[in-house]
């Protein structure tokens, strides 16, 4: 990565009164706007790689800024140098120069050829072209007829102008003459700012090709076979202009618009490139022909330098600031520079031959490595598969055991029953009817045999569902029993043998169980292949049988799972019912309590109304009233207490609880009725007594009656307060019940959640088993696939070697393989 080199050149002032208020002052690599006789303006201070003041010469600009790029171009690096600035700021003067002070381009041309002469060890081929971009059209300055040329891009040449004349040149004079000729065709025009203003951007291009002179005939790729190609662009841009200042109209105006537009796009590209790599996004190179052609120089593979020319006049201060800001942004751009080397056909051939040789050397080792890796992979696969088989075998063993157990039980039962029937009927075995004796004994002998022998051989008869189920594994009686240990079967040797000899189509076995394994003998099939083939066929069948067993097992597990699911559901339902009842009770409890209170309230009101009546009739003495009230209160609270206790105790809606409540209600009613009756049946005497007493009292103690009433109301207040407290207590009680209810609901939810998790686990287990089954199938398929690929690889290799032997004049050793051919 390399930063673009940016310099600023201040042209000498062209008018006397240019420094009235401010002036640009150059100090080392910094340029600052100063006030006349005053301080520098810190906001207008810029630093660059180089700053050339008014007294600078083109020679110094070239030496410091461009020479390195020109020399690097001779070493194969792309290079670009361009001048940027407002109109009349000295771009053309810098690039082309004058008779006395040649500019960058003539100096570069001379330097190129001077340097070439010193590079005796290399041969150079230099082609030059000269073009302009005028009103966004590319014209060839060396051939007037070549107008409106198009830009193309190719992998080999990158971005290029199609149809542009490229002149092969041998010396500097030749090039300078071509430039001179091209200058004639260039568009210049007069504006208020510049009598000879460039109306187009010009690009002088040198394509420098070189290769080493010494030729080394050894096998190594000689440096003379490597060609360096670099492109050197020396660009004189048209200057940005303010129409008000240039006074352009008509053609000049149109030109000015094109110039400004393309410079604006150049500014955009520079802006984008000056942003960080992450932020920059799309770079609009294609928005103008200028940026498209300069694309490699801007953020691409080129060493680039920019000379920004500025005018010192105060009147141009804004344009100068603009140019300096452009230069500041350009300073942040980095290019990725590398030598451009291409190979001649001979070099390519040599390099490829070397590579082939290297590969050939490696081949022996690499082939073995590849095979080893393959074997290692297969071994791993086999290990996995063996583990799976081991698992299946264990399951199978369990099945066997359970079946044997079942058979033993059945045998015992039969034996018992036959003993019973013999003793009951007074017969012995010989007396059992032949068909029965034969049937039973035959059947269980068969079962016994089946349990002891190969489980894949079906019993002759099917005495139970269990054996019937197992009998479906029987249609392969031709094959031997399962190998004792599967790990002994498929090993590295087996793979090697198989790949040397034949291949079994396991895919077809997968779909058509009864089909025989097909083998494909090759030219070097050995006699032992047939027996090997049989062995592998058997193994494949065994594997298939194991797979089927696994399927069966999975099926059983699924059944178990579904049974468990249904059991769980049942449990859930059972759990739900009491929960529902509980919920109902909890909801009903406050209602019941309020019902009870309501009932008591009715009874109490009834008694109170009787008492009020009696009191107003004068039937009831205060003492009696008080004692009756106390009695009623005591009864009421006692009954309420009982009610609450019953409601709480019997909240699970037991009918006994309800009956007790009703009974308690009845008792209370009876008591109240008794009180009412006793009040209504008060003897007249007592009333009179009471009245007299009352009268007496009123006469004798006028004030004491008032005292009684006050005590009475006080008593009532107290009772009222007590009742209120009780109501509060009841409310608290109700709240705590509700609290308990919500806690219980939460617990219930937790239990349900646990239940669901258990169900999920069960499902996962089933899924896992299914996946396992899939894996086993996949492995079987991969097994077959690998066999095929080994055979085809072998055949292809042989064919390629034969083909190559026939085609190539180079005699190759026998070990030369197909990889060498691919490389070629
Ligand atoms: N460093 C310099 N020393 C002496 N004269 C200069 C210098 N720079 C520019 N000039 C003079 O200033 C005038 C304008 O310069 P030039 O034509 O190079 O400007 P330009 O930037 O190319 O303008 P345009 O963009 O319009 O083509 C010319 O007469 C040129 O000789």
What's the arrangement of secondary structure elements?
Blueprint: E1 2-3, E2 5-10, E3 22-27, E4 30-35, E5 40-47, E6 50-52, H1 58-74, E7 79-85, H2 91-95, H3 104-118, E8 122-134, E9 137-140, E10 150-154, E11 158-162, E12 167-169, H4 172-185, E13 188-189, E14 197-198, E15 201-212, E16 226-236, H5 243-246, H6 250-274, H7 277-280, H8 289-293, E17 303-310, H9 317-330, E18 334-335, E19 341-343, H10 345-425, H11 434-452, H12 465-470, H13 492-500, H14 506-511, H15 529-617, H16 622-649, H17 655-680, H18 684-700, H19 702-807, H20 818-823
Parallel strand pairs: 2-6, 2-17, 7-16, 7-17
Antiparallel strand pairs: 1-18, 3-4, 4-5, 8-9, 8-12, 8-15, 10-11, 13-14, 15-16, 16-19
Helix pairs in contact: 1-3, 3-4, 10-11, 10-15, 10-19, 13-19, 15-16, 15-17, 15-19, 16-17, 18-19
Adenosine-5'-triphosphate is lined by residues 11-12, 85, 87-93, 194, 196-198, 238-239, 309.
CATH superfamily of one domain: Kinesin motor domain
Oligomeric composition of the shown chains = single chain
- CATH class bucket of one domain: Alpha Beta
**Which cofactor or ligand species appear?**
adenosine-5'-triphosphate
Largest sheet data: 10 strands, mixed
| Secondary structure: helix percent | 55-70%
Structural class: alpha+beta
Total beta strands: 19
CA-CA gap between termini: 35 Å
CATH architecture of one domain: 3-Layer(aba) Sandwich
Low-confidence runs: 425-530, 684-704, 815-824
CATH topology of one domain: Kinesin
**Morphology call:** elongated
The number of distinct helices, counting runs of at least 4 residues, comes to: 20
Mean pLDDT: 74
- What Rg, in angstroms, do the CA atoms define? 56 Å
What proportion of the residues form beta strands (DSSP E)?
Answer: 5-15%
């Amino acid at each position: 990565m390399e930063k673009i080199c940016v310099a600023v050149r201040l042209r000498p002032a062209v008018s006397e009164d240019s420094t009235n208020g401010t002036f640009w002052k150059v100090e080392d690599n910094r340029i600052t706007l100063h006030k006349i006789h005053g301080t520098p303006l810190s906001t207008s201070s810029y630093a660059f790689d180089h700053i050339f003041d008014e007294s600078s010469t083109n020679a110094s600009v070239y030496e410091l800024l461009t020479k390195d790029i020109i020399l690097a171009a001779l070493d194969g690096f792309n290079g670009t140098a361009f001048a940027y600035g407002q109109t009349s700021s000295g771009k053309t003067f810098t690039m082309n120069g004058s008779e006395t002070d040649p500019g960058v381009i003539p100096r570069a041309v001379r330097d190129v050829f001077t340097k070439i002469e010193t590079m005796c060890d290399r041969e150079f081929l230099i082609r030059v072209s000269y073009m302009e971009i005028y009103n966004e059209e590319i014209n060839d300055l060396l051939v007037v007829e070549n107008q409106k040329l198009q830009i193309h891009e190719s992998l080999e040449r990158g971005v290029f102008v199609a149809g542009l004349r490229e002149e092969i040149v041998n010396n500097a004079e030749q090039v300078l003459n071509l430039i001179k000729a091209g200058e004639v065709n260039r568009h210049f025009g007069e504006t208020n700012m510049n009598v000879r203003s460039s109306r187009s951007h010009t690009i002088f291009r040198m394509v420098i090709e070189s290769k080493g002179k010494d030729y080394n005939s050894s096998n190594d790729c000689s440096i003379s076979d490597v060609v360096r190609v670099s492109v050197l662009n020396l660009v004189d841009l048209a200057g940005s202009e303010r129409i008000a200042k240039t006074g352009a109209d008509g053609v000049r105006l149109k030109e000015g618009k094109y110039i400004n537009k393309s410079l604006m796009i150049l500014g955009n590209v520079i802006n984008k490139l000056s942003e960080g790599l992450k932020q920059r996004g799309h770079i609009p190179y294609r928005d103008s022909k200028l940026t498209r052609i300069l694309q490699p120089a801007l953020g691409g593979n080129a060493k680039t330098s920019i000379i920004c020319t500025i005018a010192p006049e105060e009147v141009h201060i804004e344009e100068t600031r603009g140019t300096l800001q452009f230069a500041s942004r350009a300073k942040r751009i980095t290019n990725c520079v590398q030598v451009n080397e291409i190979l001649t056909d001979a070099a390519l051939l040599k390099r490829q031959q070397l590579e082939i040789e290297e590969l050939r050397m490696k081949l022996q080792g690499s082939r073995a490595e590849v095979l080893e890796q393959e074997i290692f992979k297969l071994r791993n696969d086999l290990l996995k598969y063996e583990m799976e088989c081991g698992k299946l075998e264990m399951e199978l063993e369990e099945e066997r055991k359970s079946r044997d157990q079942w058979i033993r039980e059945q045998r015992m039962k039969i034996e018992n029953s036959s003993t019973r029937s013999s003793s009951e009927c007074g017969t012995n075995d010989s007396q059992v009817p032949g068909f029965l004796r034969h049937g039973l004994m035959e059947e269980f002998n068969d079962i016994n045999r089946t349990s002891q022998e190969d489980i894949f051989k079906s019993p002759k008869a099917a005495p139970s569902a269990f054996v019937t189920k197992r009998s479906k594994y029987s249609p392969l009686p031709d094959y031997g029993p399962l190998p004792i240990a599967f790990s002994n079967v498929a090993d590295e040797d087996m793979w090697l043998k198989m790949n040397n000899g034949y291949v079994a189509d396991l895919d077809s076995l997968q779909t058509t169980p009864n089909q025989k394994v097909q083998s494909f003998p090759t030219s070097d099939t050995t006699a032992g292949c047939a027996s090997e083939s049989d062995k592998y066929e058997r193994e494949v069948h065994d594997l298939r049988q194991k797979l089927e067993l696994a399927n069966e097992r999975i099926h059983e597990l699924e059944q178990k799972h579904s049974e468990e699911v249904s059991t769980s559901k049942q449990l859930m339902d059972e759990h739900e019912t009491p929960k529902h009842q509980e919920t109902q009770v909890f909801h009903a409890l406050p209602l019941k309590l309020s019902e009870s209170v309501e009932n008591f309230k009715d009874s109490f009101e009834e008694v109170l109304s009787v008492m009020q009546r009696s009191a107003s009739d004068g039937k009831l003495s205060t003492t009696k009233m008080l004692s009756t009230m106390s009695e009623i209160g005591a009864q009421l609270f006692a009954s309420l207490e009982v009610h609450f206790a019953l409601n709480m105790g019997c909240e699970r809606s037991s009918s006994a609880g309800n009956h007790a409540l009703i009974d308690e209600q009845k008792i209370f009613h009876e008591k109240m009725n008794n009180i009412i009756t006793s009040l209504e049946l008060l003897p007249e005497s007592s009333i009179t007594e009471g009245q007299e007493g009352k009268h007496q009292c009123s006469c004798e103690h006028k004030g004491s009656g008032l005292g009684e009433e006050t005590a009475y109301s006080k008593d009532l207040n107290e009772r009222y307060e007590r009742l209120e407290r009780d109501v509060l207590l009841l409310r608290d009680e109700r709240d705590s019940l509700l609290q308990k209810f919500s806690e219980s609901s939460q617990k219930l939810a937790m239990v349900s959640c646990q239940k669901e998790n258990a169900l999920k686990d069960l499902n996962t287990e089933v899924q896992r088993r299914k996946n396992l089954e899939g894996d086993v199938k996949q492995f079987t398929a991969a097994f077959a696939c690998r066999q095929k690929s080994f055979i085809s690889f072998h055949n292809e290799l042989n064919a390629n070697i034969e083909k190559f032997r026939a085609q190539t004049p180079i005699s190759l050793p026998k070990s030369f393989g197909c990889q060498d051919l691919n490389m070629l």
